[in-house]
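Is this the right way to post structure tokens for a design question? Let me know if I should format differently. Anyway, here goes:
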């Protein structure tokens, strides 16, 4: 096992596996009957591996930090594509992802619906009343610095879990790793990293299984097998009845108390795209947040080509009263209600009954 400073376990495992593969390719004797093209293919693979290993070695030498989702483009550069850079051109060029024109519009006249959501589970420990009290206490006692955002985010997730439909449960994962996912097989575009939060909603039976396999590795293997079988027409896929609803949230990494969330859109979209590809879902919903401001995002994968499109809302803000001390109940209930609905409908397109107006993906 390679031993390097600032060790990243997942990257180290991949590094050692590639070292073993390189040695196999390098020292394996070529059959006398092998064609020149076959030998040339092997040499190209070895050169590509050396380039990847060089980058990985440099990465492992760096001090360990929260690495963003990265992509290795087709020409295998020594510096990876960084999804934290707020440049839509990077999404288009590396992942063929484009933003669908115009932001999502909030559904009209949602005040009665917000008020009704506040009445859900009134005696639960995470009732609307208790959420409001908890958030207000946070405002009065916790400074808004980079690491504190999770306190607000956690509270909204706990309230959303209390609003889940009868017979279902929400499982919350923190720092959910994304297995290496090839999003463009012909161009070797590989995504890997982690999302700060992932939430799954499923019936009680499946929820218990997820608790024993929080990273959902067995579910991912099931999805791959079912998807391959369905593509070959050998049997009807049963994934739909076994798969929980997935919702992925990317927490912004602010440098001050209230960062511009839009500077982190590229990272959020890239992670949603990787997760949708891994789960073989045409649609996947998520959010980008610092705990106070929430941007809701939906990604749609192309059916017959790599890439896709995404759409996002404007920033929904947790507001304070006129004195600036207490959270307004309406803003807290609204964010919690949208979060709960989007978790349960994560694999669906925006349609009638949503918290945002339906729209055309072609615009």
């Amino acid at each position: 096992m390679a031993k390097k400073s600032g060790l990243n376990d997942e990257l180290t495992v991949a590094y050692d596996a590639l070292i073993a593969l390189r040695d196999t390719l390098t020292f394996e004797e070529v059959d006398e009957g092998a064609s020149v093209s076959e030998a040339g293919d092997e040499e190209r693979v070895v050169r590509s591996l050396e380039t990847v290993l060089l980058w990985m070695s440099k990465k492992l030498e760096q001090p360990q930090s929260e690495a963003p989702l990265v992509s290795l483009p087709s020409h295998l550069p020594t510096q990876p594509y960084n999804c934290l850079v707020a440049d839509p051109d990077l999404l288009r060029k590396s992942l063929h992802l484009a933003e669908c024109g115009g932001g999502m519009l909030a559904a009209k006249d949602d005040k009665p619906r917000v008020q009704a959501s506040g009445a859900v589970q009134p005696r639960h420990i995470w009732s609307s009343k208790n959420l409001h009290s908890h958030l207000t206490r946070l405002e009065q006692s916790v400074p808004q610095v980079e690491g504190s955002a999770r306190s607000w985010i956690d509270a909204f997730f706990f309230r959303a879990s209390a609003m889940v439909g009868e017979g279902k449960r929400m499982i919350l994962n923190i720092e959910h790793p994304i297995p290496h996912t090839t999003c463009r097989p012909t161009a070797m575009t590989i995504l890997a990293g982690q999302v700060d939060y992932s939430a799954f909603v499923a019936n009680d039976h499946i929820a218990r299984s997820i608790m024993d396999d929080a990273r959902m590795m067995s579910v991912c293997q099931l999805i791959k097998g079912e998807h391959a079988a369905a593509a070959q027409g050998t049997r009807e896929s049963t994934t739909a009845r076994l798969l929980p609803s997935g919702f992925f949230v990317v927490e912004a990494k602010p440098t001050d108390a209230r960062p511009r969330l839009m500077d982190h859109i590229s990272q959020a979209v890239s992670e949603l795209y990787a997760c949708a590809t891994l789960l073989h879902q045409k649609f996947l919903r998520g959010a980008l947040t610092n705990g106070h401001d929430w941007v809701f995002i939906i990604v749609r994968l192309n059916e017959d080509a790599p890439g896709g499109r995404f759409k996002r809302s404007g920033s929904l803000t947790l507001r304070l009263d006129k004195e600036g001390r207490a959270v307004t109940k309406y803003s807290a209930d609204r964010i919690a209600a949208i979060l709960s609905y989007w978790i349960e409908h994560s694999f669906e397109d925006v349609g009638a009954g949503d918290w945002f107006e339906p729209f055309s993906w072609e615009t």
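Format looks fine. Someone answered above. Worth noting: The CA atoms of residues 213 and 286 lie 22 Å apart. Residues 1-7, 26-30, 64-86 have pLDDT under 50 and may be disordered.
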